[in-house]
Design goal:
Blueprint (H helix, E strand, L loop, with lengths): L8 E3 L2 E3 L10 H14 L5 E2 L11 H12 L12 H15 L8 E4 L1 H13 L5 E6 L3 H9 L3 E6 L10 H7 L4 E7 L11 H14 L2 E5 L22 E5 L12 E4 L5 H11 L5 H7 L5 H27 L13 E5 L7 H12 L1 E2 L1 E2 L11 E5 L4 H16 L1
Parallel strand pairs: 3-12, 5-6, 5-7, 7-8, 8-9
Antiparallel strand pairs: 1-2, 4-10, 9-10, 11-14, 13-14
This protein binds pyridoxal-5'-phosphate.
């Protein structure tokens, strides 16, 4: 268990004393930057590092954006977002999950990133401990550091399907614990928390007076039959979601959060102060995401991701990569490379320089044996994945 006291923290073997010092860099960005440099030199790079769909935003959404621009929707909106979009999302919860959420509980944010940041301010006082999995999406623990909270990292392995178990949470929760922050499906492992496990965690957290927050950004991009929203289980949980992944709108910077009635007012005040409003054109464009036409496009893309997953898992296994878990959602494979290297960063660097294949070192996602893992994203075309596999084969031979 990483011991991260609020005033002195060890990160990457160094003692960090300030809030800012505890925020570590996002290593995938360094990979992307180097890949861009090599491309500028004329090299063809196979991108398997990027955490965004290669598909551009669906045509109906782009058309709605053009119409919004012509209609002059170019100014700030209300801080929690335009009413029509909040109402669409409330309907979406009813239709997709069978839960009733009032539009007032939905706040539109500039991406899930801003949603997470807002919730960190809303829910964490200095010294408060938040329980979360290791490995996990790195920005989350950095946001907790930035509000002087303490991320209490719980090392999870394939034995727990890379999601914290109830006994692990119980063991990690000290007197300063205030909340449990989960992500299902997870980045980088693609594993989900099933209904049973999520229910037992929620019941325990409620009994202990801990809030529950679930990052559901990869909902929709899942390959299992049952993926509950935490709101089906606990109506006063906090949810983070986004138009980035399933809806294919990364560059539009648009997400949302759902908060319980008790927190609507303070969440609105934070939205006003932190960013005034999410981008107006993006909000108007996103209204077109809920039509049958758009939903059919998203489903087609989900099936394409599933096909890529199947191909890549099969080929990587043939090459000797160890893939500990089933990829149940998102678009990532978390591969164990310990038989090839005990330094994931060096492994990724060499692969990029010598073979022009970009993947992400596990060290981006935590401290739990992470130097023995890499994250491989299937966010590129089947042709590029095939080329990527051919280059990996060459790398392993040399
Ligand atoms: C688990 C998770 N949460 C949040 C985000 C942030 O997404 P955005 O700000 O684009 O909505 C990401 C991006 O990769 C992610 O993987």
């Amino acid at each position: 268990m990483a011991d991260t006291a609020p005033t002195k923290t060890v990160v990457d073997g160094q003692l960090k004393t300030s809030r800012l010092d505890r925020v570590n860099p996002f290593r995938v960005m360094t990979v992307m930057h180097r890949a861009a440099e090599l491309e500028a030199e004329g090299r063809r790079i196979i991108h398997m590092e990027v955490g965004e769909p290669d598909f551009i935003t669906a045509q109906p959404i782009r058309n709605a954006a053009k119409a919004a621009l012509d209609a002059g929707h170019t100014q700030y909106t209300a801080a929690p977002g335009i009413s029509r979009l909040r109402a669409e999302l409330a309907r979406y919860y009813s239709k997709r999950y069978g839960v009733e959420v009032t539009p007032e509980r939905v706040l539109i944010t500039p991406g899930a990133s801003a949603g997470l940041m807002l919730l960190a301010h809303l829910l964490i006082e200095p010294g408060d401990e938040i329980l979360l999995a290791d490995p996990a999406y790195p920005c989350v623990r950095n946001f907790i550091h930035l509000v002087s909270g303490v991320p209490r990292l719980i090392p999870v392995t394939v034995a727990e399907n890379y999601q914290p178990t109830l006994p692990q949470l119980q063991g990690a929760a000290g007197t300063s614990a205030k909340g449990v922050w989960l992500a299902s499906p997870s980045n980088p492992t693609g594993t989900v928390l099933n209904r049973h496990r999520l229910t037992e965690i929620c019941q325990w957290a409620s009994a202990e007076g801990l809030h529950v927050l679930v990052d559901e950004i990869y909902h929709g991009l899942h390959y299992v039959d049952d993926l509950p929203s935490v709101l089906e289980i606990q109506s006063d949980a906090f949810v983070v979601n986004s138009f980035s992944k399933y809806f294919g709108m990364t560059g539009w910077r648009l997400g949302w959060i759902v908060v319980p009635d008790t927190h609507i007012e303070k969440a609105n005040i934070l939205a006003q102060n932190l960013y005034i409003s999410a981008p107006s054109i993006a909000q108007h464009a996103a209204l077109a995401a809920f039509t049958d036409e758009s939903m059919a496009i998203f489903e087609e893309r989900r099936l394409a991701f599933r096909e890529r997953r199947d191909y890549l898992c099969q080929e990587l296994s043939k090459l000797g990569f160890r893939l500990p878990n089933q990829v149940e959602g998102a678009f990532y494979i978390y591969a164990d490379i310990s038989h090839l290297s005990d330094d994931a960063e060096a492994f990724c660097r060499t692969l990029l320089e010598e073979q022009g294949v970009a993947i992400t070192p596990g060290t981006d996602f935590g401290e739990n044996n992470s130097e023995r893992f890499v994250r491989i994203a299937f966010t590129t075309s089947m042709e590029d994945l095939q080329e990527g596999i051919a280059r990996l084969k060459a790398a392993l031979k040399s």
